[in-house]
Amino acid sequence: MIEIRNLRKWLGGSAVLAGVDLTVREGETAVVIGGSGAGKSVLLKHIVGLLKPDEGEVWVDGERVADLDRQGLARLRGKIGYVFQGSALFDSMTVAENIAMGCIGPDGRPAVGRPAPEEIARCLRIVNLDPSVMHLMPAELSGGMRKRVGIARAVACPRRYLLYDEPTTGLDPMTADVINRLIVDLDDRLGVTSVVVTHDMKTAFAVGDWIALLHEGTIRWSGSAEEMSHAEDPIVRGFLEGRADLLAV
Ligand SMILES: Nc1ncnc2c1ncn2[C@@H]1O[C@H](COP(=O)(O)OP(=O)(O)OP(=O)(O)O)[C@@H](O)[C@H]1O
Ligand SMILES: [Mg+2]
User: Fold this and answer.
1) Which of 110, 112, 126, 208 is deepest in the core (most CB within 10 A)?
2) pLDDT at residue number 34
């Protein structure tokens, strides 16, 4: 379970997170939507301890992230697969080497070196890519393939949690749909607890057990996709309808 209580974070002179409360129960897929700059990536970084709260608490798997020492953080990160915004592949490494970077050993170091090709092939098959792409460089991949390799890296080790930062941004609608289905399929197959942050409403509806709207530093609204489609909150409607005039309320 992931529990975020009254999380506050100031960055660049402003309160990016101004008291966020969010609880994601085991096995759920939660979606956090919010505009560009709303603090979605900042929120995810707190879950893995890449950022520390100024106030409030983040609990993962019964542990308060701020209490963890180096080893504790490495152990925590071993349980969490992180699909970074924009895939964040290493351009000078092959697909296989990128995927191998996804496994953090107990010493907190990535398992670089020469991973068994069968292992890499298994990871690629999980995301429906042909194992032959393991020899390619990221520059040789399409946007959708890059996203899949980013996901393959996140699931290279057994995980309890998966965090997805904008998994479909920049993809055409068909490829985005393929990625949405992959997320749902993976969450079912691997039985993980997931948090997806996105401003893509199609992704939110396709993958979320429930959806929360991050707006002006707090969770403005949360509920099921069904509840969201009938919500009267003007900010929620602005998001659903892509209307900036409603967001200005
Ligand atoms: N390390 C940092 N130092 C200063 N400001 C930061 C830092 N990281 C993020 N910010 C600021 O915090 C705000 C939220 O950033 P964040 O990256 O979380 O937005 P986001 O919701 O993920 O946006 P996008 O949808 O564009 O990815 C932005 O105004 C950003 O400039
Ligand atoms: Mg972001």
Assistant:
1) 208
2) 93
